[in-house]
């Protein structure tokens, strides 16, 4: 197809509504949003898809998605790694960033709809999830990536996962502030985590090969507000040629000829956050070659073979497309969520302030 030329202030509703319709068409009756029809649901990607629904006004479906999280949350505040057909699909581990991400989705929904009853109804879910995640924070500040039911805490940390948690803590703190819940230790934990991410790379990838070949380790600290300002711009510029293929998108890993649409969307938002709106628009405009008529997007493209791979059109990729489109167009009140760091002012909870 010919590329969509997308720019600030332009949000083609009919074009993107189809993408939200695609997500809704895959959503199961219980509210869960699997990767694709017949696939499994994991908590992180479920939330990513639910945010896409909210952007296009599919609030009933989004609320059903959050209610599914409420109904399946374990007593300790966590979720298992994956679910399918109303049952747990994968009990091998509980991943910390998967659990924390509910706070990001709940805050995103609130920013768009200002539905305080929804926020109140989800408070216990967010509180339980965040308190669980913080039990995995070490004295050094990083948060262990997972718990194995047999082995216990898996004591190593991921830059991408911890960066995602950093954003989720920002959102959780905002929810607590609006609801006038006192959680000062959440801010302390967030500050410790941010300090470790910025200054102590030795606390990550201690027991496995470095994940630096993954593009997410490159841009996620910018996407989530761990790194801001000139440092963020420099970080993205330094590895641009390593990860970005002109006219195609962002590689998933530096040493494979495979661009992926979700990572390209997240990089789009990181670019906006670093002040490079022009480059963000250019990157996002490349991605619609991977779109189908029903509004869905393929996972990725292997360019030497000129083939789409894998043959999957994930709901979370569709969600990422909608988040990036909103960030570019400022179409909803949540458009800034992944492009700015904002902590709500406790004295004026209806407003937000920049907090670097």
> What strand line-up does the widest sheet have?
3-4-5
Q: What structural category do the secondary elements indicate?
A: mainly alpha
Contiguous runs where pLDDT drops below 50 for at least 5 residues: 350-356
Quick one: overall form? globular
Major sheet? 3 strands, antiparallel
Mean pLDDT: 95
- Report the strand count: 12
The CATH architecture can be named as Alpha/alpha barrel
The count of domains is 1
Q: Helix-strand pattern, N to C?
A: HHHEEEHHEEHHHHHEEEHHEEHEE
Please state roughly what percent of the residues sit in beta strands, choosing from under 5%, 5-15%, 15-25%, 25-35%, 35-45% or over 45%: 5-15%
By CATH, the topology is: Glycosyltransferase
Percentage of residues assigned to helices: 40-55%
Head-to-tail CA distance between termini: 40 Å
Number of helices: 13
Which CATH first-tier class would you pick?
A: Mainly Alpha
Radius of gyration: 19 Å
């Amino acid at each position: 197809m010919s590329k969509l030329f997308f720019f600030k202030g332009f949000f083609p509703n009919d074009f993107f509504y189809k993408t939200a319709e695609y997500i809704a068409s895959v959503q199961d009756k219980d509210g869960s949003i699997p990767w694709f029809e017949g696939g499994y649901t994991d908590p992180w990607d479920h939330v990513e898809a639910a945010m896409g629904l909210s952007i296009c006004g599919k609030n009933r479906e989004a609320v059903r998605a959050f209610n599914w999280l409420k109904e399946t949350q374990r007593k300790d505040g966590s979720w298992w790694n994956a679910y399918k057909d109303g049952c747990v699909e994968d009990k091998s581990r509980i991943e910390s960033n998967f659990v924390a991400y509910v706070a990001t989705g709940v805050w995103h929904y609130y920013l768009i709809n200002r539905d305080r009853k929804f926020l109140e109804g989800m408070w216990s879910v967010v509180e339980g999830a965040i308190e669980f995640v913080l039990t995995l924070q070490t004295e050094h500040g990083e948060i262990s990536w997972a718990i194995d039911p047999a082995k216990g805490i898996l004591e190593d940390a991921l830059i991408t996962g911890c960066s995602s948690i950093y954003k989720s803590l920002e959102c959780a703190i905002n929810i607590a502030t609006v609801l006038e819940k006192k959680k000062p230790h959440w801010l302390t934990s967030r500050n410790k985590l941010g300090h470790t991410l910025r200054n102590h790379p030795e606390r990550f990838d201690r027991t496995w090969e470095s994940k630096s070949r993954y593009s997410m380790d490159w841009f996620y600290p910018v996407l989530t507000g761990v790194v801001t300002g000139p440092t963020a711009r420099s970080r993205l510029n330094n590895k641009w040629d390593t990860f970005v293929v002109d006219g195609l998108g962002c590689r998933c890993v530096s040493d494979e000829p495979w661009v992926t649409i979700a990572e390209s969307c997240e990089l789009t938002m990181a670019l906006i956050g670093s002040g490079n709106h022009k480059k963000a628009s250019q990157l996002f405009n490349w991605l619609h070659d991977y779109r189908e008529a029903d509004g869905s997007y393929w996972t990725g493209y292997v360019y030497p073979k000129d083939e789409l791979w894998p043959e999957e059109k994930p709901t979370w990729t569709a969600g990422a497309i909608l988040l990036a489109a909103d960030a570019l167009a400022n179409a909803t009140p949540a458009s800034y969520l992944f492009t700015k760091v904002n902590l709500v002012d406790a004295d004026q909870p209806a407003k937000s302030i920049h907090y670097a």
